[in-house]
TrEMBL record:
Protein name, UniProt field: Threonine dehydrogenase
Gene Ontology MF terms: oxidoreductase activity
Organism: Parafrankia irregularis
UniProt-listed SUPFAM superfamilies: GroES-like, NAD(P)-binding Rossmann-fold domains
PANTHER family linked: ZINC-TYPE ALCOHOL DEHYDROGENASE-LIKE PROTEIN C1198.01, ZINC-TYPE ALCOHOL DEHYDROGENASE-LIKE PROTEIN C1198.01-RELATED
Database matches in InterPro entries: ADH-like_C, ADH-like_N, GroES-like_sf, NAD(P)-bd_dom_sf
Length: 351
């Protein structure tokens, strides 16, 4: 098959062997696959794979790896021991995890589990879901990105006395915003330096967008959550000030620490960014403020299924997130373009 292959730190389109389905696996043809920031983190930070003692995500510079974990695909063949419940030719997707004879692997982040930047890949039949949708595959494949923020927003369980602050307006942040809107939470405040991303945040459901170059996000949150001095006095007298829930969706060193330093006392923080090179946190300040920090965790299967259904049914419109499409020969350049904060939220590879 042809694939955009990562080896030695670079990506090049060439011909490699077709994957062969093992027990419980499906062979599928990739129809569309989104480029995610975690693809870039994976290829740029060899140490992150070396530190993963689970073996699920492994980067070896001397071995071919086909990235891509946000895919919509078509069933081509059934491996041994499968139930064959999904007919050949059916459009599908799945949580990007593959069960192999040596353990579970993240699809697109391990030599044993090639991803959607190639013509073919393998899926675990038990995790595969049918894409019951008339929408294009380029839209359906965005569901995996949606599931991450969807899960974080759902797990946060915001109350009517809390106001969310979303830092960064990339794909994960936009999915947080979309699910918060569906849950009836608001007002939703979103922060990003890039005007186009702030515009997309509004399209996905944000109520207020902030340019941090113009005003502190935390002052902006206070202005929205507390309102006028008169209303603040009334809130204090009746039920206390609103609580702050911050969703950190940037993944750049220093951002989480700046949130710790700038946020309100008692803030709940959901850190979805996680810079692969690590970070320094002012833990004493966090202690004094009584902050609660939840790191990542990824979507549960239930939340993945919910997000997939919402995208496939069209009840959640993700078209504002979709940028251009590229073929396999354009993947390397598209990865570079995805590093640009001014670039589209999602570039989609169509093998």
């Amino acid at each position: 098959m042809r694939a955009a292959v990562l080896r030695g730190g670079t990506v090049q389109a060439r011909v490699i062997d077709d994957p062969v389905p093992g027990p419980g696996q499906l062979l599928v043809r990739s129809l569309a696959c989104g480029i995610c920031a975690s693809d870039i983190h994976f290829m740029d930070h060899l140490e992150a794979g070396a530190d993963d003692d689970s073996g699920m995500s492994t980067y070896d510079r001397d071995v071919d790896i086909v990235m891509g974990h946000e895919y919509c695909a078509e069933v081509v063949d059934h491996g041994p021991g499968t139930e064959r419940r999904i007919p050949i030719g059916t459009r599908v997707s799945s949580l990007p995890v593959l069960s192999t004879g040596t353990g579970r692997r993240i699809i697109g982040q391990n030599p044993e589990s090639p991803g959607g930047f190639g013509e073919y890949l393998l899926l675990d039949e038990s995790l595969t879901r049918v894409a019951a949708s008339e929408l294009p595959s380029e839209i359906v494949c965005i569901a995996d990105a949606i599931s991450v923020g969807w899960s974080a927003a759902s797990r946060a369980q915001l109350t009517t006395k809390e106001v969310p602050l979303v830092i960064g307006c990339g794909a994960i942040a936009l999915s947080v915003i979309a699910q918060l809107r569906r849950l009836g939470v608001g007002p939703i405040i979103a922060v990003d330096f890039v005007a186009s991303r702030r515009g997309t945040a509004l399209a996905m459901g944000a109520d207020v967008v902030i340019d941090p170059a113009e005003i502190s996000p935390y002052q902006a949150w206070r202005d929205v959550a507390h309102g006028s001095p008169e209303s603040t006095k009334e809130m204090i007298a009746m039920a206390g000030l609103p609580g702050c829930v911050v969703f950190e969706c940037v993944g750049v060193p220093g951002v989480l620490d700046s949130i710790i330093r700038g946020c309100e006392r008692g803030t709940r923080i959901f850190s979805m960014g996680g810079p692969p090179e690590g970070d320094h946190l002012s833990t004493l300040i966090a202690k004094r403020k009584g902050l609660n920090i939840q790191f990542g965790g990824g979507p549960s299967l239930q939340h993945w299924d919910e997000a997939f259904e919402a995208v496939c049914s069209g009840s959640l419109d993700v078209t504002p997130m979709l940028g251009r499409t590229v073929g396999l020969d354009g993947v390397a350049a598209a990865l570079d373009a995805s590093r640009d904060a001014d670039g589209p939220v999602r570039i989609v590879v169509v093998p």
